[in-house]
Amino acid sequence: MNDMNVPKPDLKAPQTVLEELASELDELTPELRKAASYVLENPNDVGVSSIREIADAAGVKPNTFVRMARSAGFEGYEDFRHPFREAIRSRGTDFPDRARWLQSLAKGGQLGELFAEMAACAISNIENTFASTNANAMKAAADAIVNARHTYVLGVGVNNSNARNFSYLADMAVDTIWTIPRMGSVATDDLARADKNDVLLAMTCKPYRTDVVAAVEVAREQGLTIIAISDSPASPIVVGSDHAFVVDAETPQFFPSSVSTIALLETLLALVIADAPEEVVASIERFHNRRHAMGLYQEEWKDRS
């Protein structure tokens, strides 16, 4: 895990901070108690609001929150709110709160920090994902796809484009890989005629989509080979699958990162092509020659001066 995503060893959990603050409530002055009460009743606001915003909401002066933080044993309000912001970064809150936290960075002039953290997370996610698997595991999944009668690639929401990109690229070489759900359909219907001769490649990350989980359960009942891509070994689509790949999806963003999923899918497709019969290369060549002949690609620019 990237160092930027690891809380400091002495960092208190938000719940601990709240419990300690509640235990001292009776000892605070009326104004400090007003600020502390607002925090206890609206803890999510601490990580996403500026000191001026939370002071206005509580009906006190900004300096009151500074004094409240010091009375709780912190050097200042920024130190006090740090555990709450870390909880948001580690996806301990809902998407809207993470979105508000991102906006709070912009208001605080910290976009450079966000930019650096996005880059660090993307690199770390790919490194951790590939470190948790190996070429043999990837080849075994590729073998299953190559030998299948049909491979159904399932992704919904943000993963729908990842699934379609995988099928689009694969279609240049083979015609046995299809994206589901099809337009106007649901994934479980698309699997109605599938059986032990077929493969389901499914992907979902927290919060897990119930339609993907349901499709995987149907596929298991019908005997399909399951290739699962998710963000936890305990994911409902990973448990009991034939081939499982756990991706790192950490990000300061409000939605799980797709970077490692895309990298894993590209690698899996490369192994599928490498593992496929030799005529696959001829199929890819015909595909591109046809596109060139139709003028779908811009020819290289030449200096006509």
From TrEMBL:
Keywords: DNA-binding, Transcription, Transcription regulation
UniProt GO MF annotations: carbohydrate derivative binding; DNA binding; DNA-binding transcription factor activity
Database matches in Gene3D superfamilies: Glucose-6-phosphate isomerase like protein, domain 1, Winged helix-like DNA-binding domain superfamily/Winged helix DNA-binding domain
CDD domains: SIS_RpiR
Keyword field contains Transcription regulation: yes
Residue ranges occupied by any SIS domain in the UniProt entry: 141-279
All copies of domain HTH rpiR-type, residue ranges: 15-91
BP terms from Gene Ontology: carbohydrate derivative metabolic process
PROSITE patterns: HTH_RPIR, SIS
SUPFAM superfamilies reported for this sequence: Homeodomain-like, SIS domain
Superkingdom of the organism of origin: Bacteria
Protein name according to UniProt: Putative HTH-type transcriptional regulator YbbH
Organism: Roseibium album
Lineage of producing organism: Bacteria, Pseudomonadati, Pseudomonadota, Alphaproteobacteria, Hyphomicrobiales
Gene from which this protein is expressed: ybbH_3
